[in-house]
Amino acid sequence: MADDKKPEEKNMVQEGQAASPEEMKKEKIRLVPNEDEKYLPMNVEITCGHCGKSWKASLQQCVNISLHPEEKGKILDSSFFRQKCPFCGVDSELSYPLLYDDMGKALMIYLLPENTEEMLAKINKQQESWSPDMLKAARICTMRAVRHSIYLVEKIKIFDADLDDRIVELTKNFIFVRFMKERPDVDARNALFEQQNGKNGYTIFAADGKTFWAEIPEGVYEEVERMAEPFLDKKAKTEYELIDPVWAHEMLGKMLGKGDGS
Question: At what angle do helices 220-228 and 245-255 cross, to 10 degrees?
Fold first, then answer.
């Protein structure tokens, strides 16, 4: 696989151009696509789980929705991660590293489905060789890492709703615990942020495949935000972060005065 230009090594900064009010609040730097911005495909061999036959495919390593907005819908409906077997016609679901880049929102999300922590450490270490301009770009970006494509979709929905994913994860914990207390008959396993009829909440997934909707009560998100504010890191970072239930558990430990998050 040729990878002379890694997704995380691109130079995206041009100064002195018009910026949105949100961007100007940060550092008056605007992320804009460069004309020479290209990401080499990843050539892989896929084996069909249905018929067992293999074929070669070319996969994208980066999706820049500022340049290719049509790709966003494919990610949201999961069709982006499916490949049809040319022999039997059955879809295969793929899982591989992918950088989701939304320059308009200054948002970068890295999908790292295998050895997530190890891969995340390697990617963040590469920043030691970044240029000053690239580090400036990183400082105004929200940079996240996720373990699975369903969490990539969730992150996109969170930022589309103009919410802070850290507060969403903390609120999720409270809503999930309340749901389990109210519905002891349900073996709840996971929850993902959604919007229904203009309301923010979570789809809760049960072990038997059933799903349940839990709306965030009015004022709860804001109250969690108020409680968490003293504990949130306000420094601009230049690294991808895992903001997930594990992070939320540790943060709740700090907020409740329990160092181990228990």
Answer: 70
